[in-house]
Specification:
single chain, alpha+beta, Tumour Suppressor Smad4, 6-stranded antiparallel sheet, 5-stranded mixed sheet, about 30% helix
Length: about 140
Amino acid sequence: MFNFLSLVFRYLFILVIYLFIFGIIHLIYQDIKSMSGVMDNYPYLKLINRKDSLPFKVKEVYTLDSTVTIGRKKENDIVIKDPYISNYHLKITLDEENFFIEDLDSINGTYVNGDRIIDVVKLENGDRIKFGQVEFLYVSNV
């Protein structure tokens, strides 16, 4: 009787392990599937920082529309509650199939590839955009 129960528990334990592994693989697949749809069609900003190292919520990826404003106020298209980001910090605009970034007179400034921007700057694929405590990678599939 003991051998039979031991055998049943062994197989149940193995089944639970396989279900756990399947669940993890399914979550990874769903995450990759949701990300690929975003990345295939539109230019986007990809967070370079580690999310868990930041004391506020921020997404990994933000798709870019024709005009996107970023800041702390809820009226912005992308709201980031970083205390080092101004209420209306920067604007990214599409003009003639190119995206341009403009600092909106923020106190701490906006940096593209390590250089503080003063005027409107054209974004190129792979540019690093830093403002406040966050840094994003600009990715364009065009």
